[in-house]
Amino acid sequence: MTPETIQALLQDFFAAAGRKDIEAWVGCFAEDGVSHDPVGGIPTQGHANLHQFYGSIFESFDRIELTQDSTFLSGSGAAVKWTGTGRGKSGREVLFDGIYVFELNEDAKIQLLLAYWDPAEMLTELLQ
Q: Taking Cα atoms as reference points, which of 68, 53, 62 lies closest to residue 9?
């Protein structure tokens, strides 16, 4: 797998978040892909479950953007330090950050996503 292939998938992944395009976001995952978002929580597997889980998150925002701050490629994977900004349905602005670790399959789809961040902090800001 080439670095350009991995970069293209990452670009699609982060752009889909900014558009709140749940179909494109889930389409970045393998059919049986697994997301640990965040690590330590209950993993989400498969397109239907990913659609439900991330759809509910996207619906909490009027606007959301995830920006790749630093990207590190290795083999068939990548680690990305990212920053998120958004405005919740309440009108509150939020700023949050974290690290995603991606493992891609031979079709250049996300087979495994490990997300290191604190959603509780972001939700507290979002819902105040």
A: 68
Cα dihedral 40/42/44/49 (nearest 10): -150
3-state secondary structure labels for all residues of 68-109: EEEEEEECCEEEEEEEEEEEECCCCEEEEEEEEEEEECCCCC
Q: Under a CB-based contact definition with an 8 Å cutoff, are residues 116 and 97 in contact?
A: no
Per-residue pLDDT of the chain (128 residues), as tens digits, is: 999 999 999 999 999 999 999 999 999 999 999 999 999 999 999 999 999 999 998 998 999 999 999 999 999 999 999 999 999 888 999 999 999 999 999 999 999 999 999 988 888 777 76
C-alpha to C-alpha distance for 76 and 81, rounded to whole angstroms: 17
- Residue showing tokens 């290795």: 74
SS3 content of the chain, % helix, strand, coil (to 5): 35, 45, 25
d(CA 14, CA 82): 10
